[in-house]
Amino acid sequence: MAAISRDDVAHLAKLARIEMTPAELDHMASELEQILGAVKRVQEVATSDIAPTSHPLSMSNVFRDDVVKPSLTNEEALSGAPAKADERFKVPQILGEE
Amino acid sequence: MTNIHSTAAEMASALAAKEISSVELTKQHLDRIAAVDGKINAFLHIDKAGALEQAEVIDKKRASGEKLSPLAGVPIAVKDILAQKGIPTTAGSKILEGWRPPYDSTVVAKLKAASVVILGKTNMDEFAMGSSTENSAYGTTQNPWDLARTPGGSSGGSAAAVAAFEAPLAIGTDTGGSIRQPAALTGIVGVKPTYGAVSRYGVVAYSSSLDQVGPFARTVLDTALLHEAIAGHDERDSTSINAPVPQVVAAAKRLDVKGMKIGVIKELSGSGFQAGISARIAESIELLVAAGAEIVEVTCPNFEYALAAYYLIAPSEASSNLARFDSMRYGLRVGDDGSRGAEEVMSATREAGFGKEVKRRIILGTYALSSGYYDAYYGSAQKVRTLVKQDFDNAFAKADVLISPVTPTTAFKIGEKSNDPVAMYLSDIATIPVNMAGIGGMSLPVGLADEDGLPVGLQIMAPVMQDDRFYRVGGTLEAALLSKWGQPILSKAPDLTVQK
Hints:
The structure holds 2 protein chains of 2 kinds.
Chain A: H1 6-15, H2 22-39, H3 74-77, E1 84-85, E2 88-89
Antiparallel strand pairs in A: 1-2
Helix pairs in contact in A: 1-2
Chain B: H1 8-16, H2 22-40, E1 43-46, H3 48-63, E2 75-79, H4 106-113, E3 117-122, H5 156-163, E4 169-173, H6 180-186, E5 189-192, E6 213-217, H7 220-230, H8 248-254, E7 261-265, H9 275-290, E8 294-298, H10 306-321, H11 342-353, H12 356-369, H13 375-396, E9 401-405, H14 421-425, H15 432-437, E10 440-448, E11 455-462, H16 467-485
Parallel strand pairs in B: 2-3, 2-4, 7-8, 7-9
Antiparallel strand pairs in B: 1-3, 4-6, 5-6, 5-10, 9-11, 10-11
Helix pairs in contact in B: 2-3, 7-8, 8-16, 10-12, 10-13
């Protein structure tokens, strides 16, 4: 397994939307390498003939009737919003400005 | 005299007989919290006014002759990962500081419907990621047995509150051992029910295929009473099992294990476990044999890979679950000064709001799920999960329940493992296989280790939806231990009002 570089961690941090300082990236790279070294043991027994288990219960497509029931009011839904305007969530600019 | 040292069942019958009011009982617990929680730090939020108000309503209902549930008027502490309407819910994280949910989780709604008095919210490792509460953004919880030691985690606040007589009952969650391990380290009973037995609706998600809500108490019967109050199908949780709840209260009262086959897991015994733990487990086995159980040895050769698989599966699911903390709809928002775009604000918020272990697991999970590594890591871990399930299936073909120690060591010192993530992860080595397979397990206090005088937990496991089996075995063993000791294990814990 290739060593985990600071650039690798920077890429992962970008994907995960977590800002990190260069010092944090270095620290995380060495910790990640240590943890991956410990967890890669799973590869010793995970042969191709074994089916993966993604969930302890084998249920799928659990539906309920499509009936309208009381739910949060607009005010309740917005009660924890960091910013709001005109009964909506107010968010920073998402698309670039031309 | 009913007081904070009584069991929840004793409190419930005194309340029913009107020997004490819920307001009096609630006040006793609030006084205890005021007296000792400065040393324990079990609570993140104490809802004094809400608890007293709820107690008063219950007393009035009782006075008017209304039929009440078995635990009506008994106080409880709730892990701060369950949403409670209007009450701060942080999951131990700065990113949720000040958030007051606009709704109740199903478990909190069930507690309210059962007239259980909610005292407050308890401390935990941030987003349930940890085994000591040291990852809480709001300070570590101290173990009532020794304030220099951790109570375990992640539900360490709930366990410490019950062990310190701040509450007779508490709710926790268990993803890799987060109920059973702190129960073991504080000398109380904790149960991780079968996956899907208790609703996860309104529980801040860490690893959805492993997370399960469960009860803490000081006796097996109290734990069973709480288990029955919170379990059951919920259409708001698509992974909730639609089947009758096992009769755990009846099982806890049965006090008989004649003819039961108890499997001792070879891989979870002997070397790797503290001598004092192995000694108490051996004594428990003798008591079970004396009570008429048959002991068989079972082997689970793939358990040694379970820990590694867990630390791929849980972070992978966490990296996806925690994407919801995007600073847009609730929680912290940092750096929104008009000059930065949404993505930059998101990244700055997550940097400021998440602690070290949470970042570590999100990055690890992102790595394990990324293209090129998926099959080698996440895919392999899922195959190990299949093997662990097969080990349990084979073992349960030979035994009705399985037993092992809960932890490799007794309570460790605060700071001892906080800079070594892999060493910390090892504290969950005996509890993780249960979550991987989705079965249930109990941690039962079975004495103190000779070398350090700290509590030891025995883990009792049963097949899916057979949770009543570990209540039956746990109740029987608890009675045998009590008659041997003459008094409950917590009577040996130091007096917190004088301990510094």
